[in-house]
Amino acid sequence: MKSLPRLGVNIDHIATVRNARGGEHPDPVAGAYAAIKAGADGITAHLREDRRHMRDDDMSRLQKLCESENIPLNMEMAATDEMLAIALDLKPKAVCIVPERREERTTEGGLDVAAGHNHITPIVRTLTEAGSRVSLFIEAVEPQIRAAVSTGAAVVEFHTGAYAHALDDGKSDVADAYLETFRTSAKLADELGLEVHFGHGLTFDNVAAIAAIPQTMELNIGHFLIGEAIFMGLHDAINVMRQLSSDARTV
Ligand code: PXP
Fold first, then answer.
1. What confidence tens digit (pLDDT) does each residue in 212-244 have?
2. Atom of ligand 1 nearest to the CA of 8
3. Is 38 left (phi over 0), alpha (psi -120 to 50) or beta?
4. Is 25 marked active-site?
5. What residues are in contact with ligand 1 under a 6 Å CB criterion?
6. Which domain holds residue 178?
7. Of all protein residues, whose CA lies closest to atom 1 belonging to ligand 1?
8. Which residues of the chain have pLDDT under 50?
9. Out of 46, 53, 159, 197, which one is annotated catalytic?
10. Burial class of 148 by CB neighbour count within 10 A (0 to 12, 13 to 18, 19+)
11. Residue 214, preceding bond cis, omega within 30 degrees?
12. pTM score, whole prediction
């Protein structure tokens, strides 16, 4: 039996490297297969509006792979009509709705579910009825958690980017304050019936405190794992991450 929290491996940046040369290598689907063989509990991929990393054909090949390996594909997408149509066609096991701005380097900040409630709720409903488990990528604050509940989403993923940046900048007091908020928010979300995931900017150095939160069911990690694979290989990078997160949960 696999241990908690589950590790979703985000393979977007294998596609980033491929796209740097415009060819087919390295193939993110081959990367997903290697991640699954290394022990990933799920594969996560973000089909962005500008297709800067994953492409439409990558998503359909990933879905086929994940189906045949009996591993969930978690499609990250913006709340747009185009992405909704693609997700309905693809039928991934999981969908994570994220905010998206063309000019951003990565997903900056959480989805404003409180403000976008009327737009997001029907998308959550349609995807859920089509058989995908829907997650909302939000900041760990009470109004967003309560708004997420009211959309009918099954899962929230709390954005850990600012926590990770605070540690990078040596601001451990700021990071500790984020951790305290994560603990309170995870408890609240769980009490309100939401499954709790975390993601963004997680590394070997900052993952343990997040994994140790009792309600953490899943971590979605990409950039660090793909970068670290250059030095230690994807298999070992995934294994070290799994070990660090499951150890954090058992001590
Ligand atoms: N979770 C969500 C919702 C994301 O948008 C991203 C980045 O695509 C991640 C997790 C993974 O973040 P990172 O690549 O920094 O590990």
1. 999 999 999 999 999 999 999 999 999 999 999
2. 10
3. alpha
4. no
5. 10, 12, 46, 76, 96, 98, 106-107, 137, 157, 199-202, 220-224
6. 6-250
7. 199
8. 1
9. 46
10. buried
11. no
12. 0.96
